[in-house]
Amino acid sequence: MTMFNTIAIITNNSTSEIIYTLQTVIDYLREREKEVILDEFSTGLVPDINLPQGNAEYFGRNCDLAIAIGGDGTMLRAAHLLADYNVPLLGINRGRLGFLADIPANAVVRRLDEILRGNFIEDERFQLHCEIESKGKTLLESHAFNDVIIQKGNVAKLIELETFVNGNFLHRQRSDGMIISSPTGSTAYALAGGGPILHPALNALVLVPICPHTLSNRPVVIDGNNVVEVIIGTPQIDRAYLTCDGEIVCELVTGDKVNIQKKDKKIRLIHPADHDHFKILRDKLSWG
After folding, report:
1. Ramachandran class of 33: left when φ > 0, alpha when ψ lies in -120 to 50, beta otherwise
2. Where do the domains of the chain lie, and which CATH numbers do they carry?
3. Which member of 87, 153, 159, 198 lies 3.0 to 4.6 Å from 183 by CB, making a disulfide possible if both were Cys?
4. Is 72 designated active site?
């Protein structure tokens, strides 16, 4: 049986519901003599509780489980903190949809009982790694759990993008941008852009154009081991931005190249033993 003894708690919202759940989880874990480490934001929500505080490196060295309390945005933040570490991640849903944070707040104690007894399933998800090149030099690198997005700025002008897969030309398009999504991210912005829902176990990437000028320019699913290259080609570009999981990474200019591929480390999600991905889709998307 897998034992979780040193547990990190991560959140990024200060609603009364999250504070209540945070307090409940802390009390539950301390009663069971678990060592609890809080992230900086959580520490600020419960200032009267004397618990150690940690950062990503500390969690990675010392924790054998991390619990994120919030919505999928909190899960993404937790995934970014744990991106380079092999720490399993469990989500308690206090947000809206909750594709990733799948333990409802009204079942926290029961579900934690099951999981701490070893009654759970583990779900490995791959991440994305991106590298920005300008004039042959690497400017910066970043990573994402859901998606890497190249999109226009606030001015109502299309941008021109050239896309290559493993060095092979795919297409040139004028659009508001491009979403390069992992299977995990296929239920996020990519879905809103008309992309398909990919099962999280698939080794695949989906490329979704954002409002393309050519209506025949549709989403494309490719092998997950491929390398995607997107070149900013608009001469009169106003502004374009690169975002990873909704966070702006940098501004892009004409000639910049963004390389996207799988990251060499995965995120380990912990689910209740009766986790059913298709039931989550039915519930969250109101399917019959």
Report:
1. left
2. 6-119+273-285 (3.40.50.10330), 128-264 (2.60.200.30)
3. 198
4. yes
